[in-house]
Task: structure prediction
Amino acid sequence: MRDFSELIEDLDFERLVVDETALHRLDPRIKLLGAVGLIFAVVSMVHPGTPLLIFFLTLIVSVAIGIPLNTTLKRLIAPLTIAIVVFIVVLLTYGGEEVVAEFMGVQIYKNGLDLAILIFARIIASVSVLNLLIATTRIQDALAALRWFRVPAIFVDLTGMMIRYVHLLSREGVRMYRAQQTRSGFSNRLSYVTKMHNLGMLGGALLLRAFSRGERVYLAMLSRGYRADSRIVSGFRPISLKETLLGSFIILSSFLLVILDRMMGGI
Result:
């Protein structure tokens, strides 16, 4: 239970401390532009070594600016699990000519292995870049940056409310889990089927509570004059010449990384 609670705390984006380093104080629009450019570069790479290098560099930067390595790794658990699943699916389903191994009657081809490694490296590198962006940018600033880039207002508003209430409902789930645990809902004397049934009941109750709370929040927003053209996020100051040059340098560097990766060879 303690691990579950700690995981919920680590997913609390609003709890992050900002304005501690130069990276924290950098304009969110530049950070968002750099993150998107770097992610586009990562998914364009054909050699797994370059995305893996970016992944390790983001870990180093995270530790250097004061983010505990344990917290960073916990935030990567879910994406890493998805990456592993994708790796296995591609490995077992992608065909080719050269067979490198056989697992339970399923042939594994060299092309499939290379592609699985490449996709795995792309996923963890992209997620690590986003994780660094989230860890150094306030949610409100990131949403305002999206609005500045002319992202539709409805998308920005929904994103902000989702981030706010996902963590709120996660805390609610922790409280419900604890209440069920104190009533021996997950006792070692119960069978696995019974525990899964109790967990399913907890998930259903949490889903109903989420619908109920969402309706109450929407009605409360309407009563306060919310409309489709309402501005939940604030504006920005003009971007300085120094920040403009930095953003241009990030985009150019991402482009050069793709060129370098292509020169290294591919699958």
About this structure: The first strand starts at residue 99 and ends at 103.
